[in-house]
Amino acid sequence: MTHRLVALTVASFFILAGLPVQAQGLRPSTGSALATPVARLAPDVAQQADFIVAIVNSEPVTNNDVQREVQRVMQQLAQQRTPQPDRKELARQVLESLINQKAQLHQARETGIKIDEAAVDQALQNIARQNQIGVAELERRIAAEGLVLSQFRTQLREQLTLTRLRERDVEPKVRISDLEVDQYLKERQSSNDPAAIEINLAQILVSVPDAASAEQINTLQAKAQKALARARAGEDFALLVGEFSDASDRANGGQLGLRTANRYPPLFVEATQNLTLGGISDVLRSGAGFHILKVLEKKGGGILAMSVTQSRARHILLRPSAQLSEAAARDKLAEFKKRIVAGQADFAALARDNSQDGSAAQGGDLGWANPGMFVPEFEEVMDRLAPGQISDPLVSRFGVHLIQLVERRNTELSLREQREQVRTLLREKKLDETYLIWAQDLRGRAYVELREPPQ
């Protein structure tokens, strides 16, 4: 695993101050978020004669400011193997983004928004947890990436300031009426665009070698038919994937991921288009071998899910303290896992005796959960588990966890849940639109003097 620090960026990193969470310590309260940074810290650009490229409300934006951000973006795109944009055009876009940021920070200062040291400290702790390291190690890596800690803290303070400003000035303006929800649902029901339909499939692949004989092919086909019969008899599909599938996605229960239909092979789309949620296809033959597909999700209109895959998990949570370091908590949970796997201990019993949250009395059982109910660092690990599997110890913002996935199921959303999902979707869309208008207005009211173009 790489030890590169995930980066703080103007465009993609907005940390909210610590918000209250529900009793289990895993479900963030409505509206809270902690964005995970997405790229490494860019090193300083090569030192050169610097000059001012713009003035925003008496504050300068320098050529080095622009080039540093351009270099960071180019590095990120290279890591993602994304085609590189024209550097001059990218520099122009970066300059405009920095001008907008300066204008917003000016507005925040003028209207009394202040971020105290405690909030910055909390943000540092959050980043350290996301990177599965301590704060001291985080500070060491910041230095290794070419930034001094004071610069990093300044960037954090600015991002917290921008978040507070948007929470105060943008979010209260966004309201979604019942009429808007009704209209969206009506339009969605009348949409027949295949590209607007998203599906999530799980597969069992019984691969067939290129030079297989007829006898080998028949044997492999019989194997696939056996898997199909057991799946249709009600056996857990994810367990059958582990037993029969030769595909690389077997560790994830065979899930291929939610994507638009035109991003799946036509063979898969045709075989599942008339299946309901939870439906299982016949055995399909492709160049790779024999496939069996199960429909996990279907979304029409590009977003709205009529059903969700729910997970039921249990966990043991240890909270680091003066008496129990994070490393000691990891070691303790690792020992628990070893004992459970060896049949020497029971997960629920260990949870009741050791877990430090409200689920302990239930043997760590967290109940059925929809996607998005747990914090990302917890949910990402849980989603990779097959039923019955136990994770390695992991660190979240709440402590150190040991997770066991008990089971999964597909369930239809109630009408109320569908409407709330639509309301959330429409609110996010309107929030983006409202933010753009608000940012353009601030930009228009700021004093901006453009000087030499960035080079």
Write down the domain tally.
3
Mean pLDDT: 81
Question: In CATH terms, what is the architecture of the largest domain?
Answer: Orthogonal Bundle
Shape: globular
* Helicity, as a percent range: 40-55%
CATH class of the largest domain: Mainly Alpha
- What is the assigned CATH homologous superfamily of the largest domain? Porin chaperone SurA, peptide-binding domain
Segments where pLDDT lies below 50 for 5+ residues? Answer: 1-25, 27-47
Number of helices: 13
| Overall SS class | alpha+beta
The biggest beta sheet reads: 5 strands, antiparallel
Question: What is the CA-based Rg, rounded?
Answer: 26 Å
Q: What is the strand content?
A: 15-25%
Q: What is the straight-line distance between the termini?
A: 36 Å
Number of strands: 12
Oligomer: single chain
Order of helices and strands: EEHHHHHHEHHEHEEEEHHEHEEHE
Q: CATH topology of the largest domain, anyone?
A: Triger factor/SurA peptide-binding fold
Name the features.
globular, Chitinase A, domain 3, Triger factor/SurA peptide-binding fold, single chain, 13 helices, four-stranded antiparallel sheet, 16% strand, alpha+beta, 455 residues, 3 domains, five-stranded antiparallel sheet
